[in-house]
Q: What sequence folds into this?
């Protein structure tokens, strides 16, 4: 099984500043088809998760360009530039290159 | 517009059964892997099971193998999660998802 480890577990950021989230997988997520099935989600309070980034760096339709994803193999990063109050919530990474698994989540709060 | 809508949640006693439904609109489930994901109260997300695009394969997390079954009705454009021998630790919100599209979830409570 692929274990996804997110750091930090919580983050407090001043509006307008940037935020960075890390996710490491216990195995490479690169598949034989050349794709890496890695996602970032934001779950706001009382809502289902919403996809931000898919396949490592592709921004989902309607997602602000303040969000960007990068990484490869086992190390992945989500960056938010110019954090806004509406970005508050829990950020999860997830992989489906093998049996799907989620990270434990990183809670973002605004200072 | 594309949507997934879950239903069928409720209160069930330990050892009981429940069938959750996931209805798709705006797109056809055929051609997509559909997943069930759950979230225990105050906890993170856990993948539970999925079915492949043509319905020929299903996969389950170890903790539900032999107790949960995924099926689908292509005529109704719906996916189902049949849950039996339910345990207290199975409680939570159950979502169906294509990974890009998620439903709002349905709550399962397992309690005597």
A:
């Amino acid at each position: 099984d692929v274990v996804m480890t997110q750091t930090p577990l919580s983050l407090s950021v001043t509006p307008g500043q940037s935020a960075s989230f890390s996710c490491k997988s216990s195995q490479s997520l690169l598949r034989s088809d050349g794709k890496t099935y890695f996602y970032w989600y934001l779950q706001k309070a009382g809502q289902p998760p919403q996809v931000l980034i898919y396949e490592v760096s592709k921004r989902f339709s309607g997602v602000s360009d303040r969000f960007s994803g990068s990484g490869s193999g086992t190390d992945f990063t989500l960056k938010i530039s110019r954090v806004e109050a509406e970005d508050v919530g829990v950020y999860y990474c997830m992989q489906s290159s093998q049996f799907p698994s989620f990270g434990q989540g990183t809670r973002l709060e605004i200072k | 517009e594309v949507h997934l809508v879950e239903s069928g949640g409720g209160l069930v006693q330990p050892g009981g059964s429940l069938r959750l439904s996931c209805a798709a609109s705006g797109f056809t489930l055929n051609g997509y892997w559909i997943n069930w994901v759950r979230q225990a109260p105050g906890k993170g997300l856990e993948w539970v099971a999925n079915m492949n695009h043509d319905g020929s394969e299903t996969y389950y997390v170890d903790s539900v193998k032999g107790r949960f079954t995924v099926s689908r009705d292509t005529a109704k454009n719906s996916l189902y999660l049949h849950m039996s021998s339910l345990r207290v630790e199975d409680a939570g919100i159950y979502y169906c998802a294509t990974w890009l599209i998620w439903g709002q979830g349905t709550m399962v409570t397992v309690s005597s």
